[in-house]
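Thread amino acids onto this structure.
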């Protein structure tokens, strides 16, 4: 983490690996097969717009507007794994609006540790189809929400002092999730 980029970095090329960098403003991954690993991100967080992006083992904190990681409606096959996200308004968004409900984005959101993300109503929000949210650990957060989109899977997530899981739309699977000291008695809502 010797190199700190103070302005937003937009990567339009393909097959680029960004390893061990600090991003003070934002990162936009617009190309194909891009990777951000072992870095630090603040400011406006990460926007994934291309296909096959990978975000792993990053520390993301202090993102005050929007999502710390936003997998946009044009993205396909993004992998968001083993990141530590804390003190952000919201952690991860997949899809954009009702226009992306039927888009099969195919994102994998797995093994992330998320803490103290309570500024928005949803800590993890999905507005697309064909995504997997599994084995994440959330502490002192709000909802994991399937706003709209079909064929999504939510499994093996642990939510401590959270509002837990809310699922709208059909054909989604919610299996093996755990609520520890939930903020509401009705912690899982379909």
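Threaded sequence (190 positions):
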């Amino acid at each position: 983490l010797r190199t700190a980029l103070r302005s937003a970095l937009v990567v339009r090329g393909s097959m680029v690996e960004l390893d061990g960098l600090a991003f003070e403003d934002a990162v936009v991954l617009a190309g194909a097969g891009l990777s951000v690993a072992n870095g630090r991100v603040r400011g406006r967080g990460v926007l994934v717009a291309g296909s096959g992006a990978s975000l792993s083992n990053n520390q993301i904190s202090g993102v005050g507007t929007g999502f710390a990681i936003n997998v946009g409606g044009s993205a396909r096959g993004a992998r968001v794994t083993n990141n530590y996200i804390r003190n952000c308004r919201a952690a991860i968004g997949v899809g954009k609006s009702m226009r992306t409900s039927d888009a099969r984005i195919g994102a994998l959101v797995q093994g992330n540790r998320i803490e103290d993300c309570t500024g928005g109503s949803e800590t993890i929000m999905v507005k697309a189809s064909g995504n997997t949210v599994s084995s994440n650990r959330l502490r002192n957060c709000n909802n994991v929400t399937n706003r709209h989109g079909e064929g999504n899977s939510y499994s093996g997530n642990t939510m401590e002092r959270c509002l837990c899981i809310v699922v709208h739309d059909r054909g989604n699977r919610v299996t093996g999730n755990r609520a520890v000291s939930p903020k509401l008695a009705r912690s899982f809502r379909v």
